[in-house]
Amino acid sequence: MSKKRKAVRIALSILAAIAIWLYVDLVRQPSVPMKVKDIPVEFAGESTTLADKGLMLLSGYDTTIDLTLKGPRRQLWQIDKDDIRIVVDTSTITEVGAQSLTYQVVYPDGVSKNSISVDWASAYRVTVTVGELYSTEVPIQCEVVGTPKKGFYAEEPILDIDKVLLHGQRDDLVNISYAKLTVDISGATRSVVQTVDVQLYDYDGNLVENSNIRTSASLIQAKVPVLTTKEVQLAVEFSGIPGAALHSIICDITPKTVRINGEADILAGIDQIVLATLYVEDLELTQQNSYVVTPPDGTWLVNGNEVATADITLDGISETTLTVTDLSFTDLPAGLYAVVPEGGLTVRLWGLSEEIEAITAENLRATADMSTVTGQGSFTVPVTVTVSGFSDVTVRGTYELTLTITDTPPQTEPAVPAGGEDQTVPEVPET
Question: Where are the alpha helices (DSSP H) in 176-297?
Fold first, then answer.
């Protein structure tokens, strides 16, 4: 037989063997064993159903069981051994003493329970000792060890609960005084939050290690605030001040700074505390304002409540009044006309003294908003006054006019004859 034909036969034999193996494994799916060791036993209803009966487990809750499972290889391959659970139902327990209980093997989701069986177990029942349940509540103390980084300090710890409920036999609970947890803040630069196991202590301060005592919450969340201090400026902001007039405002604040406490990352974004925002209408030539210092959210004043005083002086600022004669209208309905009151509109102007002295009515323009006009009659409408030609002057106050609306175009008034007397026009009051 040639070497070539021999090699072909060997290859065909290997392929046939693989096909048979796949058929047996995938189609026939023979059972194979899988060993799982040290599976902890869980007790369902221990803290609810059993506790409601005034009973508790004194022993048996640390039991582990070894299993040999049998099933199709593909099914067993899908199982993570750590996801196999052994659960004992405690609802059948009705009295104290030794009890022998059955258990159920719980497989992970997605695994067919019908295709897997327990071929062997180190124990087929779980033996427990049941005793009477007594309960007591003790306070929780938090011990903080270590010191934060230089420049930081720790405040009193905050616990999510301040008491813990203990379950056990009366003799085991009678000497328990308190529970304690420990939080290490060594070198901390921010608040430390930990979920910590509690330990029990007697009335002499000695640690009590008793596995028969069960706690309602063995892990407690504790927060130790770790804060720092920062000195920040106090400020008064000014809004709506035209041009260079802003630089003519002298604001002297006493004290100039305050010290605040808080988390380092919060303080990093705070450079000043704004006491107030003042507008043109709020300003006098000289004034003194007092403000309660309000620290930003998440921070506290080192010295408690503080009051700051702002002395404000307007250097080179003046005021005057002028009458606006250039009046226009917006949104006046078609076919209606507004009768302009005699004398126009008198307004107050605020700004740099040299510009106040130079400005005239020709630099002012008033625009009346007629959007509320619906027909003939008398309407009071808001008026906006703008200044042109002077960047350091602004209009102070808000204004409105009461206008008569008619459907008749206004008559052009004849010019005043030479030598005629001027008419005195009353000013429209500021609102």
Answer: 264-267
Spatial distance between the Cα atoms of 347 and 325, rounded to a whole number of angstroms: 11
Q: What is the pLDDT of residues 262-294, one digit of tens each?
A: 999 999 999 999 999 999 889 988 999 999 999
The tokens describing 163, both together, are: 């008491």
Whole-angstrom Cα distance, residue 427 to residue 108?
A: 89
- Average the pLDDT over 226-231 and give the result: 96
233 forms beta bridges with 257, 272
- Residue among 88, 36, 80 nearest 62 (CA): 88
pLDDT tens column, 325-364: 888 999 999 999 998 888 889 999 999 999 999 999 999 9
* C-alpha span between 324 and 333 (Å, rounded): 24
The pLDDT of residue 216 is 82
Half-sphere exposure of 72 (CA within 13 A, CB side): 15
The answer to whether 341 touches 381, Cβ cutoff 8 Å, is: no
**What sign does the CA torsion over 33, 36, 37, 42 have?**
negative
β-bridge mates for residue 175, sequence order: none
DSSP 241-273: --GGGGGGEEEEEESSEEEEEE-HHHHTT--EE
Number of neighbouring beta carbons within 10 Å of residue 305: 8
User: What CA–CA distance (Å, rounded) separates 258 from 293?
Assistant: 9
Would you say how long the chain is, in residues?
431
Q: In a 10 Å sphere around its CB, with 0-12 CB exposed, 13-18 middle and 19+ buried, how is residue 341 labelled?
A: middle
pLDDT for 410 equals 73
- The residue behind tokens 């705070």 is 270
Cβ neighbours of residue 154 closer than 8 Å, sequence gap 6 or more: 144, 147, 148, 185, 188, 224, 225, 226, 227
Which H, E and C letters describe 106-131, residue by residue?
Answer: ECCCCCCHHHCEEEEECCCCEEEEEE
Q: How confident is the model at residue 245 (pLDDT cuts 50, 70, 90)?
A: confident
Q: How far apart are the first and last CA of the chain?
A: 121
Residues paired with residue 235 on neighbouring β-strands, in sequence order: 274
Least confident of 187-191, 362-366, 417-421: 417-421
Residue 402, classed as helix, strand or coil, is strand
Whole-number pLDDT of residue 302 = 93
Check pLDDT > 70 for residue 317.
yes
